[in-house]
Design brief:
This protein has 22 helices and 29 strands. It has a six-stranded antiparallel beta sheet with strand order 22-23-18-24-25-26. Strands 1-2-3-9-8 form a five-stranded mixed β-barrel. The chain is α+β, with helices and mostly antiparallel strands. It binds a DNA duplex (15 and 18 nucleotides) through helix 11, helix 14, helix 15 and helix 19.
Length: about 800
DNA sequence: GCCTTGAAGTTACCG
DNA sequence: ACCGGTAACTTCAAGGCG
């Protein structure tokens, strides 16, 4: 019979000692949970003979040497960076043989290298069959007696043929379960050896909401009940926030200690750590929403509360907030315990709410690049691009290059213009759409079209890169040209489909997430090819792309000036010009004519302000909104107070053009600060711990504070944000006077002077300095409202 | 020994 | 663990001065 299913998870097992069995865990349109087994697929890899070595002979040799381990050995035609070649395909019995044989075969005389021996078996299976996770598939299969397997599924099937992809954009009715744990932690960070899990909160997308709580410090039942609840609800997706780096590790350790089996997978196993450090729960997708939150650069301190507020899931003002180190106090105090319960509930509600916002995008990303849903978040941006490329390589019969360690080589990037400082009115911002992908397509820039300097080739057959001189064949189409064109075309197609849909419809939402995912992959491809960790790394490719970019933007600026358009600023793929509609139109046409590339008016600023610095400006939009770019107000490492002041100053300047009004405002803030009328929370400065604590040479404030936190028993990791405030003290060094923010409750300890001189004033002066305002004016007590006073 | 200066280290931003 | 370009801050040691 034909079986249709949405592929949720995939793994494999070995049965009868030597038969690999692919297991595809899916959801059917009839809302059943199924597993489809395929016992017909075998692992394999390729062996490239050294130059001049007969591949047939090599195949024969390998066959003889490893006759007991190898199922078959055949010569196949492939391409490698576009060049046709013959390789030996070595087919093995079971997947664990691959890494073993790879090493043995590498050492054989006549072998140049081994390829595609590092692709996990289930990924190999999906690639070869052209099927994708998080999408619909169809397979001819017979149903097996499910009781034989004792797995938690409705039905089990055995594939009779290869699965095929189905083009359907709707989603199955997925069951989602969110969870969150709270641990007892009287000494800073909790230790699973001794500290119990005091609360596990659970919420499902079917409306269940449960708290499992410890009896004082006894958590056996908490974990047991959680396991029961997961088994009862039988979720397809389990979501958590930082669950891969905390909750699962803690729960597993705790469960081990208490001799509880955390058997929540659909094959009754425990979650186990897998490829990118995530926990795999067989048959379900274990998704850590923190991974995607990390990519949301608009939120500076990525706590669950902050991300939930940013995405409109839950306001911080509508939920209890408890400092991590204080949790145990709330547990021990009978009056406060209720608040902790509310806190745990708010966390799990936020987590489930977050999944509504984030999962649809992850699902599309998963179905485009081909990584299972539980791996998509943990894979780096580069690896996501790469999986997409690996899929494409298979389709084009291209050999996948091996991972290599390479030294870093830098190259020249984009151009940034010196801005014309000051206030400008009515400015149009013109952007090249998808500049780098389009450059790569247009000039056929790709590792497989690259012509080495020593190769001789007629000039008409190549594109020669300006400045750097790299040559790329005009034909045939390079790998990147093919891949990028497909991505961009797919996106355009979806966008035109969307125009016919109701923006409130589910399908519209799905397509919108899909087009966003396609855009993300296309835009990351340039960065990918200049990344030394990339399989398809080629410095010249990245270098040529930016070189063309520089030429194109420079020429565009010249053309603008030639037709009398004043250029105020430009960065990489954008130019800021005086908004003269006829001239702007003409420029767009000229660019199209000259380069075959599209530039579009992205936005218009009624007023825009530049300091002398690049990459920092602010502008007033027609609808009254204000853009702040690069300035302190949008940086995560300035105090909220300084950012707020700058934002207000910008608003006053852009809307009313009155620096003195801004001065009065700044002075009023300074007065409040002096009187202690500002909340300490607005004085916190956050900085990321970007490496291990012992690797720092410099004694910066956040490093010093981080060391103090570690002393206090708080476990810190690379990537953690350190929040501190500056307090009064004898030392000149700021780092000596930095304290963890949660230890400073009394405002009288705060070094108000620091906040005035090093936070508020610099942030305000960044803007007001241009208008001739001096620091002394901001600090003076005299009121002054006019130009006359100013010049006195 | 004190003050100035600039390099080095560091973070976070832009596109 | 995607790129280079850029601004800005703090620390720290060298250099200038007396």
């Amino acid at each position: 019979m034909k079986v249709r299913y949405w592929l949720l998870d995939i793994n494999y097992g070995v049965i009868a000692g030597n038969i690999p069995e692919i297991r595809m865990w899916g959801v059917t349109p009839e809302n059943e949970r199924i597993v489809v087994l395929d016992r017909s697929f075998r692992p394999y890899f390729y062996v490239l003979p050294i130059r001049g070595y007969d591949p047939e002979k090599l195949a024969e040799k390998i066959k003889n040497m490893f006759s007991t381990k190898i199922l078959a050995c055949e010569v196949v035609e492939k391409r490698f960076f576009g060049k046709p070649l013959k390789v030996v395909k070595v087919i093995c019995q079971v997947p664990p043989q691959v890494p073993e044989l790879r090493e043995d075969i590498k050492r054989i005389r006549g072998v140049e290298d081994v390829y595609e021996a590092d692709i996990r078996f289930y990924m190999r299976y999906m690639i070869d069959n052209g099927i994708y996770p998080s999408s619909w598939n169809e397979v001819e299969a017979e149903e097996l007696e499910k009781t034989v397997f004792r797995w938690n599924v409705d039905r089990v099937f055995l594939a009779q043929g290869p699965p095929k992809p189905l083009q359907l954009s709707r989603l199955p009715p997925l069951r989602v379960l969110a969870f969150d744990i709270e641990c007892y932690n009287p000494r800073g960070s909790p230790n699973p050896e001794i500290d119990p899990v005091i609360i596990i909160s659970v919420k499902t997308n079917k409306g269940d909401e449960k708290l499992f709580t410890a009896r004082d410090h006894e958590d056996y039942l908490v974990i047991k009940e959680f396991v029961n609840e997961v088994q009862r609800f039988d979720p397809d997706v389990i979501v958590g926030y930082n669950s891969n780096k905390f909750d699962w590790i803690y729960l597993l350790e705790r469960a081990k200690k208490l001799r509880i089996k955390l058997n929540i997978a659909r094959n009754n196993e425990e979650p186990k750590q897998s490829v990118y450090g995530h926990f795999s729960i067989i048959g379900r997708a274990n998704v850590d929403l923190y991974d995607l939150a990390e990519e949301m650069h608009e939120v500076k301190v990525k706590t669950l509360e902050n991300v939930a507020e940013y995405l409109g899931v839950m306001k911080k003002s509508e939920r209890p907030l408890i400092e991590g180190t204080e949790i145990y106090k709330y547990w021990d105090d009978n009056n406060l315990r209720k608040t902790l319960m509310e806190y745990a509930l708010a966390d799990v509600r936020s987590t489930l709410g977050l999944s509504d916002k984030i999962l649809p995008f992850m699902i599309q990303l998963s179905s485009i690049v081909g990584l299972p849903l539980d791996q998509i978040g943990t894979a780096s941006v580069g690896r996501r691009v790469e999986w997409y490329l690996m899929r494409s390589a298979f389709e084009y019969n291209e050999l996948i290059p091996n991972l290599e360690e390479r030294p870093h080589v830098s190259y020249k990037g984009a151009i940034v213009l010196e801005p014309k400082k000051g206030l400008h009115e009515n400015i149009a911002v013109l952007d090249f759409s998808a500049m780098y992908p389009n450059i790569m397509i247009k000039y056929n820039i790709s590792p497989d079209t690259y012509v080495e300097p020593f190769e001789t080739i007629e000039e008409e057959k190549v594109y020669i890169t300006p400045e750097v001189g790299h040559k790329f064949r005009k034909y045939p189409d390079g790998f990147y040209r093919k891949v990028l064109s497909r991505l961009l075309e797919a996106r355009e197609k979806i966008r035109s489909q969307m125009k016919r849909l109701d923006p409130r419809s589910l399908e519209y939402r799905i397509l919108d997430e899909r087009q966003k995912a396609l855009k993300v992959i296309a835009n990351a491809t340039y960065g990918y090819c200049g990344w030394t960790g990339a399989r398809w790394y080629k410095r010249e490719v990245a270098e040529a792309t930016t070189a063309w970019g520089r030429t194109i933007i420079s020429e565009t600026i010249k053309m603008a000036r030639k037709i009398g358009l004043e250029v105020i600023y430009g960065d990489t793929d954008s130019i800021f010009v005086k908004n003269v509609p006829e001239k702007v139109e003409r420029l767009i046409e000229m660019v199209k004519e000259r380069f075959g590339l599209r530039i579009k008016p992205d936005k218009i600023y009624i007023r825009v302000f530049f300091t002398e610095a690049k990459k920092r400006y602010c502008g007033l939009l027609p609808d009254g909104r204000i853009d702040v770019v690069g300035l302190e107000a949008v940086r995560g490492d300035w105090s909220e107070l300084a950012k707020e002041v700058q934002e207000k100053v910008i608003e006053i300047i852009l809307k009313y053009g009155d620096p003195f009004k801004a001065v009065d405002y700044v002075k009023s803030v300074i007065k409040k600060l002096e009187r202690g009328e500002i909340s300490i929370s607005k004085l916190i400065i956050w900085k990321t711990l970007s490496k291990d604590l012992d690797k720092y040479e410099a004694h910066t404030a956040h490093v010093v504070v981080a060391r103090k936190m570690v002393q206090a028993g708080i476990r810190l990791h690379k990537g953690d944000k350190i929040g501190f405030v500056i307090v009064k003290g004898a030392s000149q060094r700021i780092s000596d006077r930095a304290e963890p923010y949660f230890l400073v409750k009394d405002f009288s300890l705060i070094d108000v002077n620091y906040y005035i001189e090093k936070q508020v004033i610099p942030a305000a002066l960044r803007i007001l300095g241009y208008f001739g305002i001096k620091e002394s004016l901001l600090k003076s007590n005299k009121k002054q409202r006019s130009l006359y006073d100013f010049f006195q």
